[in-house]
Specification:
Helices cover 73% and strands 0% of the residues. The chain is mainly alpha-helical and 265 residues long. The chain has one domain. The two termini are 33 Å apart.
Protein backbone atom coordinates (compact mmCIF):
# COMPACT_ATOMS: atom_id res chain seq x y z
CA UNK A 1 0.00 0.00 0.00
CA UNK A 2 2.88 2.35 0.75
CA UNK A 3 4.31 1.77 -2.73
CA UNK A 4 0.91 2.45 -4.30
CA UNK A 5 0.51 5.70 -2.35
CA UNK A 6 3.98 6.89 -3.36
CA UNK A 7 3.33 5.91 -6.97
CA UNK A 8 0.13 7.96 -7.01
CA UNK A 9 1.95 11.00 -5.62
CA UNK A 10 4.72 10.69 -8.21
CA UNK A 11 2.21 10.18 -11.03
CA UNK A 12 0.28 13.31 -10.03
CA UNK A 13 3.51 15.30 -9.96
CA UNK A 14 4.45 14.02 -13.43
CA UNK A 15 0.97 14.88 -14.72
CA UNK A 16 1.16 18.42 -13.34
CA UNK A 17 4.52 18.79 -15.03
CA UNK A 18 3.04 17.86 -18.39
CA UNK A 19 -0.21 19.84 -18.33
CA UNK A 20 1.59 23.14 -17.78
CA UNK A 21 2.56 23.10 -21.47
CA UNK A 22 -0.23 23.86 -23.95
CA UNK A 23 1.57 22.03 -26.74
CA UNK A 24 1.01 18.77 -24.87
CA UNK A 25 -2.74 19.22 -25.23
CA UNK A 26 -2.21 19.65 -28.96
CA UNK A 27 -0.38 16.32 -28.96
CA UNK A 28 -3.36 14.73 -27.24
CA UNK A 29 -5.74 16.15 -29.85
CA UNK A 30 -3.39 14.99 -32.59
CA UNK A 31 -3.54 11.49 -31.11
CA UNK A 32 -7.33 11.45 -31.44
CA UNK A 33 -7.14 12.64 -35.06
CA UNK A 34 -4.42 10.10 -35.92
CA UNK A 35 -6.34 7.14 -34.51
CA UNK A 36 -9.60 8.20 -36.17
CA UNK A 37 -7.69 8.51 -39.45
CA UNK A 38 -6.56 4.91 -39.00
CA UNK A 39 -10.14 3.78 -38.69
CA UNK A 40 -11.12 5.89 -41.70
CA UNK A 41 -8.81 3.69 -43.79
CA UNK A 42 -10.64 0.57 -42.59
CA UNK A 43 -13.97 2.30 -43.28
CA UNK A 44 -12.93 2.83 -46.91
CA UNK A 45 -12.18 -0.88 -47.27
CA UNK A 46 -15.51 -1.83 -45.72
CA UNK A 47 -17.38 0.64 -47.93
CA UNK A 48 -15.85 -1.08 -50.96
CA UNK A 49 -16.30 -4.72 -49.94
CA UNK A 50 -19.17 -4.53 -47.42
CA UNK A 51 -17.55 -6.76 -44.80
CA UNK A 52 -14.22 -8.24 -43.70
CA UNK A 53 -14.20 -11.95 -42.91
CA UNK A 54 -17.97 -11.84 -42.52
CA UNK A 55 -17.77 -8.97 -39.99
CA UNK A 56 -19.94 -5.94 -40.70
CA UNK A 57 -18.89 -2.30 -40.45
CA UNK A 58 -20.26 -1.98 -36.91
CA UNK A 59 -18.57 -5.18 -35.73
CA UNK A 60 -15.17 -4.21 -37.14
CA UNK A 61 -15.56 -0.74 -35.62
CA UNK A 62 -16.32 -2.35 -32.26
CA UNK A 63 -13.21 -4.53 -32.57
CA UNK A 64 -11.11 -1.51 -33.56
CA UNK A 65 -12.46 0.51 -30.64
CA UNK A 66 -11.68 -2.25 -28.16
CA UNK A 67 -8.13 -2.61 -29.45
CA UNK A 68 -7.56 1.15 -29.41
CA UNK A 69 -8.89 1.52 -25.84
CA UNK A 70 -6.69 -1.34 -24.64
CA UNK A 71 -3.72 0.20 -26.44
CA UNK A 72 -4.30 3.57 -24.80
CA UNK A 73 -4.70 1.97 -21.37
CA UNK A 74 -1.25 0.40 -21.61
CA UNK A 75 0.50 3.38 -23.20
CA UNK A 76 -0.77 5.91 -20.64
CA UNK A 77 0.97 4.40 -17.59
CA UNK A 78 3.76 2.47 -19.35
CA UNK A 79 4.90 4.88 -22.08
CA UNK A 80 8.17 5.50 -20.24
CA UNK A 81 9.30 2.02 -21.34
CA UNK A 82 9.84 3.48 -24.81
CA UNK A 83 12.69 5.60 -23.38
CA UNK A 84 14.46 2.74 -21.61
CA UNK A 85 17.29 2.50 -24.15
CA UNK A 86 18.28 6.14 -23.61
CA UNK A 87 17.74 5.93 -19.84
CA UNK A 88 20.22 3.06 -19.57
CA UNK A 89 22.70 4.54 -22.03
CA UNK A 90 22.78 7.88 -20.21
CA UNK A 91 23.14 6.30 -16.77
CA UNK A 92 19.84 7.67 -15.50
CA UNK A 93 18.76 4.23 -14.30
CA UNK A 94 21.41 4.35 -11.55
CA UNK A 95 19.46 7.17 -9.93
CA UNK A 96 16.42 4.92 -9.63
CA UNK A 97 18.40 1.98 -8.27
CA UNK A 98 19.68 3.85 -5.21
CA UNK A 99 16.18 4.84 -4.07
CA UNK A 100 14.14 2.66 -1.68
CA UNK A 101 11.26 2.16 -4.11
CA UNK A 102 10.45 -0.37 -6.81
CA UNK A 103 12.48 0.40 -9.94
CA UNK A 104 9.61 -0.08 -12.37
CA UNK A 105 7.31 2.18 -10.32
CA UNK A 106 9.94 4.93 -10.34
CA UNK A 107 10.54 4.55 -14.06
CA UNK A 108 6.88 4.72 -15.00
CA UNK A 109 6.05 7.70 -12.79
CA UNK A 110 9.10 9.76 -13.73
CA UNK A 111 7.34 11.17 -16.80
CA UNK A 112 3.93 10.92 -18.46
CA UNK A 113 2.92 11.45 -22.08
CA UNK A 114 -0.39 13.22 -22.64
CA UNK A 115 -0.57 11.97 -26.22
CA UNK A 116 -1.53 8.54 -24.87
CA UNK A 117 -4.79 10.00 -23.54
CA UNK A 118 -5.63 10.86 -27.13
CA UNK A 119 -5.51 7.14 -27.93
CA UNK A 120 -7.92 6.44 -25.08
CA UNK A 121 -10.27 9.24 -26.13
CA UNK A 122 -10.27 8.08 -29.74
CA UNK A 123 -10.93 4.51 -28.66
CA UNK A 124 -13.84 5.54 -26.44
CA UNK A 125 -15.43 7.57 -29.24
CA UNK A 126 -15.17 4.74 -31.79
CA UNK A 127 -16.23 2.09 -29.28
CA UNK A 128 -19.26 4.11 -28.18
CA UNK A 129 -20.38 4.76 -31.74
CA UNK A 130 -19.86 1.11 -32.73
CA UNK A 131 -21.79 -0.13 -29.69
CA UNK A 132 -24.85 1.68 -30.97
CA UNK A 133 -24.53 0.05 -34.42
CA UNK A 134 -23.28 -3.48 -33.70
CA UNK A 135 -25.75 -6.12 -32.61
CA UNK A 136 -24.81 -6.47 -28.94
CA UNK A 137 -27.16 -7.48 -26.16
CA UNK A 138 -25.99 -5.27 -23.34
CA UNK A 139 -26.49 -6.33 -19.74
CA UNK A 140 -24.67 -5.63 -16.47
CA UNK A 141 -22.69 -8.81 -17.05
CA UNK A 142 -21.60 -7.86 -20.58
CA UNK A 143 -20.62 -4.34 -19.46
CA UNK A 144 -18.57 -5.84 -16.63
CA UNK A 145 -16.92 -8.28 -19.04
CA UNK A 146 -16.11 -5.41 -21.43
CA UNK A 147 -14.34 -3.52 -18.61
CA UNK A 148 -12.38 -6.64 -17.65
CA UNK A 149 -11.55 -7.36 -21.30
CA UNK A 150 -10.16 -3.85 -21.88
CA UNK A 151 -7.99 -4.12 -18.77
CA UNK A 152 -6.89 -7.62 -19.74
CA UNK A 153 -6.09 -6.53 -23.29
CA UNK A 154 -3.97 -3.68 -21.98
CA UNK A 155 -2.11 -6.11 -19.71
CA UNK A 156 -1.38 -8.43 -22.64
CA UNK A 157 0.18 -5.61 -24.63
CA UNK A 158 2.03 -4.35 -21.56
CA UNK A 159 3.39 -7.86 -20.94
CA UNK A 160 4.84 -8.19 -24.44
CA UNK A 161 6.36 -4.71 -24.35
CA UNK A 162 7.72 -5.19 -20.81
CA UNK A 163 9.35 -8.49 -21.76
CA UNK A 164 10.94 -6.89 -24.82
CA UNK A 165 12.11 -3.89 -22.76
CA UNK A 166 13.67 -6.23 -20.18
CA UNK A 167 16.06 -7.50 -22.85
CA UNK A 168 17.58 -4.00 -22.88
CA UNK A 169 19.45 -4.90 -19.69
CA UNK A 170 21.35 -7.49 -21.75
CA UNK A 171 21.60 -6.13 -25.30
CA UNK A 172 21.27 -2.37 -24.54
CA UNK A 173 19.01 -1.54 -27.50
CA UNK A 174 15.54 -2.99 -28.11
CA UNK A 175 13.80 0.05 -29.57
CA UNK A 176 13.48 -1.49 -33.04
CA UNK A 177 12.07 -4.71 -31.58
CA UNK A 178 9.50 -2.85 -29.49
CA UNK A 179 8.48 -0.67 -32.43
CA UNK A 180 8.02 -3.78 -34.57
CA UNK A 181 5.83 -5.36 -31.88
CA UNK A 182 3.76 -2.19 -31.69
CA UNK A 183 3.31 -2.21 -35.49
CA UNK A 184 2.17 -5.85 -35.41
CA UNK A 185 -0.40 -5.15 -32.69
CA UNK A 186 -1.69 -2.04 -34.47
CA UNK A 187 -1.81 -3.64 -37.91
CA UNK A 188 -3.11 -7.15 -37.24
CA UNK A 189 -5.14 -6.36 -34.13
CA UNK A 190 -7.61 -4.16 -35.96
CA UNK A 191 -9.11 -6.93 -38.09
CA UNK A 192 -10.93 -10.22 -37.40
CA UNK A 193 -8.16 -12.80 -37.10
CA UNK A 194 -10.11 -15.37 -39.12
CA UNK A 195 -8.95 -13.59 -42.30
CA UNK A 196 -5.38 -14.75 -41.57
CA UNK A 197 -6.23 -18.45 -41.80
CA UNK A 198 -5.75 -21.25 -39.28
CA UNK A 199 -1.97 -20.95 -39.01
CA UNK A 200 -2.16 -17.16 -38.66
CA UNK A 201 -4.74 -17.43 -35.90
CA UNK A 202 -2.57 -19.96 -34.07
CA UNK A 203 0.50 -17.70 -34.23
CA UNK A 204 -1.43 -14.61 -33.13
CA UNK A 205 -3.06 -16.48 -30.25
CA UNK A 206 -0.47 -18.81 -28.75
CA UNK A 207 2.89 -17.39 -29.96
CA UNK A 208 2.13 -13.67 -29.84
CA UNK A 209 -1.05 -13.37 -27.72
CA UNK A 210 -2.51 -10.58 -29.83
CA UNK A 211 -5.90 -12.31 -30.08
CA UNK A 212 -6.51 -11.79 -26.34
CA UNK A 213 -6.27 -8.00 -26.68
CA UNK A 214 -9.53 -7.45 -28.57
CA UNK A 215 -10.47 -10.19 -31.04
CA UNK A 216 -11.39 -12.97 -28.61
CA UNK A 217 -13.27 -10.68 -26.18
CA UNK A 218 -15.07 -9.06 -29.13
CA UNK A 219 -16.31 -12.46 -30.34
CA UNK A 220 -17.82 -13.02 -26.89
CA UNK A 221 -19.65 -9.70 -26.83
CA UNK A 222 -20.74 -9.95 -30.48
CA UNK A 223 -21.86 -13.57 -30.13
CA UNK A 224 -19.40 -14.87 -32.74
CA UNK A 225 -17.52 -17.47 -30.68
CA UNK A 226 -18.69 -20.24 -33.02
CA UNK A 227 -16.19 -19.05 -35.66
CA UNK A 228 -13.16 -19.48 -33.38
CA UNK A 229 -10.48 -22.10 -33.94
CA UNK A 230 -10.23 -22.46 -30.13
CA UNK A 231 -12.80 -23.34 -27.49
CA UNK A 232 -15.19 -20.54 -26.54
CA UNK A 233 -13.98 -20.86 -22.93
CA UNK A 234 -10.59 -19.52 -24.06
CA UNK A 235 -12.25 -16.31 -25.26
CA UNK A 236 -14.17 -15.89 -22.01
CA UNK A 237 -10.90 -16.23 -20.06
CA UNK A 238 -9.14 -13.49 -22.06
CA UNK A 239 -8.96 -11.05 -19.07
CA UNK A 240 -7.29 -13.73 -16.92
CA UNK A 241 -4.77 -14.38 -19.69
CA UNK A 242 -3.81 -10.71 -19.52
CA UNK A 243 -3.12 -10.96 -15.78
CA UNK A 244 -1.09 -14.16 -16.26
CA UNK A 245 0.96 -12.66 -19.11
CA UNK A 246 1.76 -9.55 -17.08
CA UNK A 247 2.88 -11.57 -14.04
CA UNK A 248 5.19 -13.67 -16.21
CA UNK A 249 6.58 -10.59 -17.95
CA UNK A 250 7.27 -8.88 -14.63
CA UNK A 251 9.14 -11.93 -13.35
CA UNK A 252 11.16 -11.90 -16.58
CA UNK A 253 11.86 -8.17 -16.06
CA UNK A 254 13.14 -8.78 -12.53
CA UNK A 255 15.37 -11.63 -13.71
CA UNK A 256 16.86 -9.61 -16.56
CA UNK A 257 17.50 -6.67 -14.25
CA UNK A 258 20.23 -8.76 -12.57
CA UNK A 259 22.27 -8.41 -15.75
CA UNK A 260 22.23 -4.61 -15.71
CA UNK A 261 25.63 -2.95 -15.85
CA UNK A 262 25.98 0.72 -15.04
CA UNK A 263 26.98 3.11 -17.80
CA UNK A 264 29.74 4.29 -15.47
CA UNK A 265 28.68 7.93 -15.24
Amino acid sequence: MRTIRIAMVLARAALRSEIQYRSNFLMMAAGVVYQCTGFAFIWVILARFGSIGGWSVGEVAFLFGMRLCAHGLWVAPFHRLTDLDAIIREGELDRFLVRPLNLLVQLLTSKLWLGSFGDIAGGVVILSAASAVADIRWSPGSVFYLALALAGGALVEVAVQLAAAALTFRILSTKELREMIDDVFNTFGSYPLKIYGTSGQFLLTFVLPLAFVAYLPATVLLGRTEELEVAAAVAYMAPLVGVACFCLAYLFWCRQLRHYQSAGH
